[in-house]
Design a protein that fits this description.
The chain has two helices and twelve strands. It has 285 residues and is an alpha+beta fold. Strands 1-12-3-4-5-2 form a six-stranded antiparallel β-sheet, with no helix packed on it. Strands 6-7-8-11-10-9 form a six-stranded antiparallel barrel.
Length: 285
């Protein structure tokens, strides 16, 4: 019969003995290694050489798994970094667009400075608040300035390229402008080359102003001639300042009425109105 394995106190004593021997051996090896015993150093070097191929092979085999593990553990950090970088990129884009808008705004304002035909006149810069010409079905637009800025009914409204219209209604903070596209708005005009005077009114759209000058002047009107304001007594525009209206596109003589009918292309692009100037001058009533 096979003897039974020792149990109880005998088995515990055996374990304690083995543990004591192993501990003493470890302490001895550490002491010898610290004192630089040659034999022990050689044995350790041999063990390193012996197990180096095994360790290298193990590392090669486990590399994909270690990379995968590192990828899993680092995914949240990578995602956080990406979110942070996206936020910074969005912020930089916002700053760039804000800078671009500010530069465009400055350019629009600078366009209204140093306009020669406004020399000697007091003006107020204002912004159009009612959108493009296609919405101006009644040939009016609204400005973001009013009486609080010194504006009043009758004051001309201009833009860098020429005449826009005149104020017809005003409140403390807003003004309504009648555009020169309105067929009911008549103004005095002058041909800049010949000096011939006449009058004109809006053609009902944003492209053509209709002018009339006398046939009796004897001065032929040529296409591409510049047309400005002025020339008529008690004009609704400042008499000493020639504000561009447009250029002559077509001339049609009307012998019965003894006038030349002028089709004039506007100087101002009404579809692009944004910043304008109000001339602080009111015509005599």
């Amino acid at each position: 019969m096979r003897p039974l394995s020792p149990s109880g106190p005998s088995r515990r004593r055996s374990r304690y003995y083995v543990l004591l021997v192993v501990t003493l051996a470890a302490v001895t090896l550490i002491t010898l290694d610290a004192r630089g015993v040659v034999a022990l150093s050689s044995a350790r070097a041999g063990a390193v050489d012996l197990f180096s191929p095994v360790r290298g092979a193990t590392r090669w085999v486990t590399t994909p798994f270690r990379n995968a593990w590192n990828g899993i553990n680092g995914y949240e950090d990578l995602q956080s970094d990406n979110e942070r970088l996206r936020g910074e990129l969005q912020e930089l884009r916002g700053e760039r667009y804000a800078d671009q808008d500010a530069a465009e705004e400055l350019a629009r304002l600078e366009e209204q400075l140093g306009i020669l035909y406004l020399s000697g006149l007091d003006t107020q810069i204002a912004r159009v608040t009612t959108g493009p010409f296609s919405n101006f079905t009644d040939h009016t637009l609204q400005l973001d300035r009013g009486r609080n800025s010194g504006l009043d009914v009758g004051m001309p409204v201009v833009q860098r390229d020429g005449l826009v219209g005149r104020i017809v209604r005003v409140s403390d903070t807003r003004s309504v402008v009648q555009l020169i596209t309105d067929p009911d708005m008549w103004i005095g005009i002058r041909l800049s080359r010949s000096g011939v005077i006449g009058k004109g009114h809006g053609g009902g759209d944003e492209t053509t102003f209709i002018g009339e000058v006398s046939l009796d002047t004897g001065e032929p009107v040529e296409p591409r001639e510049l047309v400005v304001t002025g020339g008529i007594e008690r004009s609704i525009m400042p008499p000493g300042n020639q504000i561009p209206v447009g250029t002559v596109d077509k001339v049609t003589p009307d012998a019965a009425a003894r006038v030349q009918i002028l089709q004039i292309d506007y100087s101002v692009d009404f579809a692009q109105l944004d910043v304008v100037q109000v001339v602080k001058w009111v015509p005599e009533s």
